[in-house]
Amino acid sequence: MSRRIPFSILDLAHVGQDNTVRDAILKSQTIARLAEETGYQRVWLAEHHGMRGVASAATAVMLAGIGSVTRNIRIGSGGIMLPNHAPLVIAEQFGTLAAMYPNRIDLGLGRAPGTDMATARALRRNLQGAVEDYPADVAQLQTYLGDATEDMPVIAVPGEGSKVPLWLLGSSLYSAQLAGKMGLPYSFASHFAPDALHDAIRLYQINFKASQQRSQPYVSAGVMVVVGQTPEEAQYLFTSVQQQFANLRRGVNAPMPAPVNDIYSVLSEHEVSAINSTLRYAAVGTPEAVEQQLSDFAEASGVDEIILSFPISDEQKCLKAISQVGQMVNVKADPDWL
């Protein structure tokens, strides 16, 4: 790597087509232990609901389990979808995690529901109002996690005084601007929304105002990684996530598919072209090729950190990829990362 930056992992707790939710949970714990051993900066899990291929709906519960099998690596949400929840509930959950695992918890926030609208309504939040109130809810959450004052009518116990660091996550320009104005670190979802990457980073930096949490902007960006011992094996393994994205677009709710020898046997040429455009920043290839692709992405984007997801359905190949990439790219983080 020509420019040394921290690397982290976004674990989507994939449920493979021949696996159970328990299998996915145990795999997530194994990934976290391996990430710690190989020098990744943090492991995040994302809140998704009603998806047969994702096991991290109860994100805070998953993080409690991740924390129990690791010792030092930062763990957190990438992210909690705040419109689904009352800010007080999230303050209590992450205040509890901070008490369990001091100085290790990140709280990344998003404003999408993380699911379909029927499931979103079943979460029993007024979604329209909740999305509109997102900036106020983020500020309220900060208040709950900060030091209490005598005139506060509501306190978070646990949560009060924990000062769990907040991140804003986004796949558009909205959260970039808000993160800058609030002086929070920002993580952009370039692993599935590549078009706005450079505009989002520029808008965040232009709007950044120093805060109690950060004096300078800090940006991470998502990249999918699929590693094979040969280019052909990597492309074969990559067909799992290509099929997964096709299922999302078709409205098919299914576990993560196994790879196929010929992607055009299950997807049309138009589907493959559209999906590959969406996944254009994915690093796919041999370990050496992936290292170069990640280096190129870091240089082109100028981000401070890259957070990697490994959408490889075979557990052992997934773990091997995490280990190989970790050994190639990971360095000790700047102590002033947050």
Automatic annotation (TrEMBL):
Annotated Luciferase-like domain residues: 7-304
Name of one Pfam family that matches: Bac_luciferase
Signal sequence, start to end: none
UniProt-recorded Gene Ontology molecular function terms: oxidoreductase activity, acting on paired donors, with incorporation or reduction of molecular oxygen
Family under the similarity heading: To bacterial alkanal monooxygenase alpha and beta chains.
Organism: Salinimonas sediminis
CDD domains per the UniProt record, alphabetical: Flavin_utilizing_monoxygenases
Gene Ontology CC annotations of this record: cytosol
Name recorded for this polypeptide: Luciferase-like monooxygenase
InterPro entries membership: Bact_Lucif_Oxidored, CmoO-like, Luciferase-like_dom, Luciferase-like_sf
